[in-house]
Amino acid sequence: MTTASASTEPPRGRPRDPSRDEAIIHATISVLVRSGYDNLTMEGVAAEAGVGKATIYRRWNTKAELVIDAMATLKPVGGTIDTGSLDEDIEQMAAVSCSRQSQRLFQVMTSVCSALSREPDLLEAFRIRFTEPRIARLTEILERARCRGELAPHIDVAMAASLLPSLMLHRALTTGRPAGRAYAEQIVSTVLRPVLGLPARPLPLHSKDTR
Predict the structure, then answer these.
(1) 91 shares a domain with 62
(2) pLDDT by residue (tens digit) across 108-138?
(3) Is residue 2 part of a domain?
(4) pLDDT score for 159
(5) What's the distance, Cα to Cα, between the start and end of the chain in Å?
(6) pLDDT at residue number 134
């Protein structure tokens, strides 16, 4: 067989069905949120997706590969926040962090945390998909505020930007459920603002209960 004839030979086997890939990815996220990474199995995902186990193994060799691809489909919430006011930007950021889509992302984040110390590729995907985008977004807000003169030049923006996403994740890990709007407002009012050199603010009445 010549090189030319080999290159034009039609591919063998059944073509890959994108709809099955989508069903498997959705099933992976559902099982992940419901059962956690350690209890997720290829068999369980296959049952959830309504496909054979072999269908999954033809696409992914390990559950880590499958979960990483599933995480890659989760989109960051919203676009750029830039109201021209630091207080309003942070208020919108807190609201976004408690949206339904964000809560789903936090559920996925907490479900994989137990495996991060032993799965380097999963840790890298977690950092790229979840941690860095949130910190980068808040860093942009704080840097713009500093340029407008709302923050003093000596403020450690990098450290301050990590507070809200880190504490929201910690809350989810320690309670087993995503942190709510009241907790986000508490972080902003009593932690983030003082770190930024701004006076703490009294919490709204609806934010008193952070359970």
Answers:
(1) no
(2) 888 998 899 999 999 998 888 888 988 999 9
(3) no
(4) 94
(5) 70
(6) 86
Q: Tell which residue, 64, 45, 67, has the closest CA to residue 56.
A: 45
Per the CB < 8 A criterion, the answer to whether 85 and 70 are in contact is: no
The residue range of the domain holding 42 is 16-72
- Same domain for 55 and 114, yes or no, is no
CA distance 37 to 32: 6
Place of tokens 């709204």: 204
Q: What is the pLDDT of residue 27?
A: 96
Q: Distances in Å between the alpha carbon of 148 and those of 99, 116, 194?
A: 28, 39, 19
Contacts 24+ apart (CB under 8 A), 3-9: none
Pull the structure tokens for residue 121.
């590729």
Query: Mean pLDDT across the stretch 78-82?
Result: 79
Mean pLDDT on 25-42: 94
**Measured distance CA(163)–CA(183) in Å, rounded:** 13
Name which residue leads in pLDDT, 99 or 83.
83
Q: Do 59 and 150 fall into the same domain?
A: no
CA–CA distance, 91 with 52 (Å, rounded to integer):
46
- Find the CATH number of the domain harbouring 21: 1.10.10.60
Pair 46, 122 in one domain? no
Place of tokens 């990474």: 37
Is 79 part of any domain?
A: no
The CA–CA distances, whole Å, from 79 to 60, 110, 144 equal 32, 24, 16
**Tokens found for residue 156:** 């450690």
- pLDDT of the residue at 155: 95
Domain count, the chain: 2
Would you say residue 117 lies in a domain?
Answer: yes
